[in-house]
Design a protein that fits this description.
By secondary structure, the chain is mainly alpha-helical. It has one domain (2-388). The chain has 18 helices and three strands. It has helices at residues 2-13, 15-28, 34-37, 42-51, 69-77, 87-108, 114-124, 129-139, 156-167, 205-227, 233-236, 242-255, 261-278, 283-293, 298-309, 319-332, 350-358, 380-388; strands at 175-179, 186-189, 194-198. It has a three-stranded mixed β-sheet with strand order 1-3-2, with helices on one face. The termini are far apart.
């Protein structure tokens, strides 16, 4: 009853802010980029690309838009932000509107090559020279010997059972769906609070532990924590939240003992694939870099190249490694991760979140990441790498 009265008082005190936040919530739910950027015919084009001996660039097809981009832009910019009296909050919501406007531009230009690529750059940026050097530093390490934990023997149904058992540690529902047209083997859909598992793939024991701590331990934890915040922007996402969220998710892999050198190399290949875009590489060129020059097997090389070239040039993947570096540094400095688990927030917005908390507009987290309680990593090579990337 006390919480209910407090919520009513808060909404009365900040009526204009809550109205704008609610308006944006309705609009944002229509533009989840990953629903549109994953090709519908990736398997067919993969076989055609392999049959051409890696010469014929794939021709990907994408889902049709379910909204009118122009009308959606207009609705975003129709919000009367001048009604928000607090300068810091008004500035934050202005950044939010620009961010989601850029996201709309990304979605409406999917498949339009350079048009999409330049819109993607506004949202996700491009790897820096330091990022590329960090990736190359990681890739010079010798492969670890294969182990039973890395053998892909588990079916999607077995993966579902594993994730359901894992999620019992957490006090929120786990809604699992099987999907075909996703780039990853498993991922979280923030808008539907669902975990999607790709059909017709096999999972290793290590991969299941990795995905559980990455997808459930961070992406679903931040989804459900965000839904419990007074303002809906915590669940929809602060501007440019991907680097922090993916950094936390890979750090969760590290703390749980799931992170391997192979996985760290995968994130490094993604950086090089993203970097190849700004150099004007075609799909075949990027694949050649990863498969022939760096000797990654052709299926994994195709997957990494697809993730970078989908839509016309998608640079999101370059943020996993830089995000991990920033979150790991925070951990080494002894700082808590709790504030970063409040929703889809960013390291850069810490001052804004602190300001919102002082005004009663942000709550402490309900759901913890259990992997953060104890460091179970025993791989000293990973510690050395993470301590020495710049």
């Amino acid at each position: 009853m006390v919480d209910e009265q407090r919520e009513i008082a808060l909404k009365n005190d900040h009526a204009d802010l809550f109205e704008i936040d609610s308006n944006l919530d309705r609009l944002v739910k229509r533009i989840e980029l990953l629903n549109y950027v994953n090709p519908l015919n990736s398997e067919k084009e993969k076989q055609r690309f392999f049959a051409s001996k890696y010469a014929a660039n794939p021709q990907f097809k994408y889902p049709k838009l379910k909204f009118n981009p122009y009308k959606l832009h207009r609705l975003f910019f129709a919000q009367r932000l001048e009604r928000i009296k607090d300068d810091a909050i008004r500035k934050l919501y202005q950044e939010i509107i620009y961010y989601y406007s850029n996201m709309i531009q990304c979605i409406e230009t999917i498949g339009e090559n350079k048009n999409f690529y330049f819109n993607s750059l506004r949202v996700y940026g491009t790897p820096t020279e330091r990022d590329v050097n960090n990736a190359k530093f990681i890739l010079h390490y010798e492969e670890e010997p294969p182990s039973e934990d890395m053998e892909k023997i588990h079916s999607p149904e077995e993966a579902k059972q594993y994730f359901e058992e894992f999620s019992k540690q957490y006090n929120f529902p786990l809604n699992i769906k099987f999907a075909t047209h996703i780039a990853a083997d498993a991922m979280v859909s923030n808008s539907s609070q669902s975990m999607l598992i790709k059909r017709n793939v096999r999972f290793s024991k290590n991969q299941l532990l990795t995905l559980a701590n990455h997808e459930i331990g961070v992406h679903l934890v931040t989804t459900y924590n965000g839904l419990l915040q007074p303002l809906k922007i915590f669940s929809n996402g602060f501007p440019k939240n991907v680097e922090t969220q993916e950094g936390l998710a890979v750090f969760s892999e590290y703390m749980s003992g799931a992170l391997t050198l192979k996985r760290l190399k995968e994130l490094s290949y993604r950086v090089l694939a993203s970097d190849s875009l700004i150099k004007g590489y075609s799909f075949a060129d990027t694949f050649d870099l990863i498969h022939n020059q760096y000797k990654l097997n052709r299926n994994d090389a195709f997957s990494i190249t697809l993730r970078a070239h989908r839509g016309g040039g998608f640079t999101k993947d370059r943020l996993y490694l830089s995000g991990l570096k920033k979150v790991y540094r925070r951990y080494k400095e002894g700082q808590s991760m709790d504030l970063l688990l409040r929703g889809k927030v960013t390291l850069e917005n810490e001052p804004a979140i602190g300001h919102l908390e002082k005004m009663g507009l942000s709550n402490r987290i309900t759901h913890q990441n259990l992997a953060f309680n104890q460091n179970k990593n025993s791989n000293t090579t990973l510690d050395f790498i993470l301590d020495n990337i710049k």
